[in-house]
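Give me structure tokens for this 438-residue protein.
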Amino acid sequence: MGLSEDLRQAVRRHYTERFANRAFRPGVDWVPVSGKAFGPEELEALVECALEFWLTAGPHCRRFESQLRSMLRVEAVVLTNSGSSANLLAVSALCSRSLGDRRLREGDEVVTAALGFPTTLNPILQNGLTASLVDCRLGTYNPDLSDIEAALTPRTRAVFLAHCLGNPFEVDRVRELCEEYGLFLIEDACDALGASFDGRPLGSWGDLGTLSFYPAHHITTGEGGAVLCQSGELAGIVRSLRDWGRHCWCEPGHDNTCSRRYDTAFPGLPEGYDHKYVYSEIGYNLKMTDLQAAIGEVQLSRLPDFAKTRERNFRALDGLFKEYEEWFILPRSIQGGEPSWFGYPLTVKDEAPFSRQDFIRYLDSKRIGTRLMFGGNLARQPAYRDNPLVKIPPSGLPGTDKALTSSFWLGVCQAIDEPRLSYMLQCIEEFLRAVGTA
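Here you go.
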């Protein structure tokens, strides 16, 4: 339909008056640890979509899926309402009876990291599977291949790992390990859109991958996420689970695209029962809306510029902290890894003349945002303590425990412009110089 020129100009005036040209006030305005960045184009797309009044998934969703599929080089993309839902759909798909003997069953084990966000762990437990936790390596904050291999047992059926803070894990070797032992691989790439390993996008190495478009992430649709699928079979299962568990594949607003709507037969149902109301999975309603996808299309076009800003901010912080490396474990990536950093992670060493708490309290007083390493050691969180489905290695989780007590991260997101970056660097250097001379 397109916006009239008068309406387009009205939207741009609103953007300018409401969002643009706000000078940063050091010590008053926050330097965000994460946050959205957008222009008038997102508002124009949102208004245009709203005027079309397509309230559920529609043409913008189909285009957004197609753009992601091309960029990430996967067989199919299934949009959903959050990255957390994407993780739930990915694990649930592997438990589908449609997979026959390949499906995961209650009691099967899934190897996953102890350090991370709970929505990587939760779908494993919600499907009655056992989560076999593995430790992290400080610096990369990802598991080591040897720890993953040591966690394998005859009941292991899958590996489900996040690329922590946009930093690739050894995805090529993990992929080879999964192929050797006949395991499924799910990549949680929610923090890693735009990152790659050996030139191949993260999220495309596994049988399934997941993305999040929450405002903290590399691009945003508000709420939103996606499941990346490397086979049409898995994509069909994921779509069914997302769309109430129905067997029909018609898009919303469309009927009888199979031309056999009343000609199918299913055990237990009357002959010719309406295919639109046949359910082959125990599903949900986890769809994205066209309003969200309209924003996502514009945001995706900004991803290269967003990545450059994140890289600039990361390198500036890295240059400063390298002068104080005796007090910190600095972030590092593996050979072949091309991160798209979600944040700048640090671990305060035992010999530092200050604690993590000292540092983050100081930064907070300067209105500079920080975050801990998500849930730290998830096995120590109240929801998972003494849970019989959570399996801890005999050697414990020493790296993850250290991250729990001593690690945190600073923002590098596209919302941090040069004035905010300069202020953050100045404040950090003032603190480190002061404690160094105390």
